[in-house]
Amino acid sequence: MWLQDGNYFRTRDRGSDVETLPPHVYVAHASMMGPYLERQQDKFHFPYKLYGSSNFPERVKHSFDNTSGNLGVMLTGLKGTGKTVEAELICNILNLPVILVQSNLEGALVPFINRIQENIVVFIDEYEKIFSKSDEMLSLMDGALRTKARRVFVLTTNEMYISDNMLNRPSRVLYIKQFGNLEAPLIKEIIADMVPDTSMHQPALEYLSSLEIITVDIVKAVCAEMVRFSEVPNAFKSIMNIKQRRSMTKNAYHLLGGKENLICSGGLVDPPNILRLKLTDPDEEYHLSLRDPNMTDWQTYGRILSVDPDKQTVTTEQGVFKITESRCHPSLAQTMAVTC
């Protein structure tokens, strides 16, 4: 039951003039009279081109339509990689009232959500900034289990901020989708859309491949700067608020027959701290991936089986690899004209 006053909705036990919430987007607020909702918009709008096709929102919708009980979805990864947009697409396709949670409502969030006796989406963007401890989410999610109505919890976080009590518990969080750097086809598509001069495309790719993080926002900012001043990135990279990868990158060698065969020079290695990996969890899988400094594509060399930090070697399903700091390996002293 809801009492409506313009765009504001308060729960009521009786005498309500709104039986159910229309499927709009609401923001939850706290007040002296108790929590209430403010209608923000009818749905999420995107006044720009969305890059990268994903059927994940449709998957969430299909799961909701073909299951019972609550459904939890976590989207995690670097800022600017598309988590919020994907979350908003999920909210739109579910066509349910969406409640944006921006605080714990001075401790009243759980009872307030439990009073809502209809299916809703609880959307918490960057929830690690709202909840000081991820376990606080459990009281909300488990408390909501006591209601007859269903809830879809859509959570985004810039880092994997989740307690052990939520991991491997599909009843609480069914899906965890991780977001990372843009793939090469997407980067090329954005450049093609934003930079009319095709002669500037390759310099843009070369510069972007040198970055530590590649997101939609960053690619757009670089392209806009190129068009605004008719310059390639080398002309302005020193003043852009964009972080390039550290100069001390890695060389990777495939060890075959006692010889070191160079397969990547001055490139990036994933995981970045690969020689310090602790492979203690049998359910945790890591794959060795390398990216050449002049490319945007990653090459994968199999699941990591063991790591020997003393020998600087990593053993995967595809063999043994040696990872060393670039510009310091003796075998490159002459070819790269460096002093080791």
The CATH architecture of the largest domain: 3-Layer(aba) Sandwich
Estimate percent helicity.
10-25%
CATH class of the largest domain: Alpha Beta
What's the structural domain tally? 3
- Please count the beta strands (DSSP E, at least 2 residues each): 15
Largest sheet: 9 strands, mixed
Report the β-strand fraction as a percent range. 25-35%
**What's the overall geometry?**
globular
Evaluate the radius of gyration.
25 Å
Q: What would you call the structural class?
A: alpha/beta
Low confidence ranges: 327-340
**Order of strands side by side in the largest beta sheet?**
1-2-4-3-6-7-8-5-9
First-last Cα distance: 74 Å
Order of helices and strands: EEEEHEHEHEHEEHHHEEEEEE
The averaged pLDDT comes out at 82
Q: State the helix count.
A: 7
CATH topology of the largest domain: Rossmann fold
Please explain how this structure is put together.
The chain is of the alpha/beta class. It has 3 domains: 2-179, Rossmann fold (3-Layer(aba) Sandwich); 184-235, no CATH class; 250-332, no CATH class. Helices cover 21% and strands 27% of the residues. The protein contains 7 helices and 15 strands. The chain has helices at 56-65, 83-94, 109-115, 136-144, 184-194, 201-208, 216-229, and strands at 2-5, 8-11, 25-29, 36-41, 71-77, 98-100, 120-124, 151-157, 175-179, 250-256, 259-270, 287-291, 299-308, 313-316, 319-325. It has a 9-stranded mixed sheet with strand order 1-2-4-3-6-7-8-5-9, covered by helices on one side. A 6-stranded antiparallel barrel has the order 10-11-12-13-14-15. Strand 6, helix 3 (109-115) and strand 7 (120-124) form a beta-alpha-beta unit. Helix 1 (56-65) runs parallel beside helix 2 and helix 5 runs parallel beside helix 7 (216-229). The radius of gyration is 25 Å and the shape is globular.
